[in-house]
Design brief:
With 102 residues, this protein is of the alpha+beta class. It is 12% helix and 14% strand. It has a domain of 54 residues: SET domain (Beta-clip-like). The relative contact order is 0.17. Pfam families: SET. This is SET domain-containing protein.
Length: 102
Amino acid sequence: MSACNHSCDPSAEVVFAGSAKLLLVARRAMAAGDEVCISYIDHEEADKEERQKGLNSYGFCCDCCRCQPPPAQKKKKRPKVSAGVAPAEEPPQARRVKARRG
């Protein structure tokens, strides 16, 4: 199984079938040419740092889809202050607007 790379989202798993037999079993459908990856650690661990601790003995840092940081969120535009809004430092009575009756 040394020919399989690691992923925290593996496409296959190793199953021990007898004293001298290993099976490589797909965890999901794969197309021809897809890389077959197994997990060298307990990939069910939710915490990235804990998974990385398990990989330290293998001498590498994982960069699979589960270990990559989430895409940067777009900055939300702040609404523009419209004319007629009083600054917060003015007393409340100065901010009141009276409706005219016509």
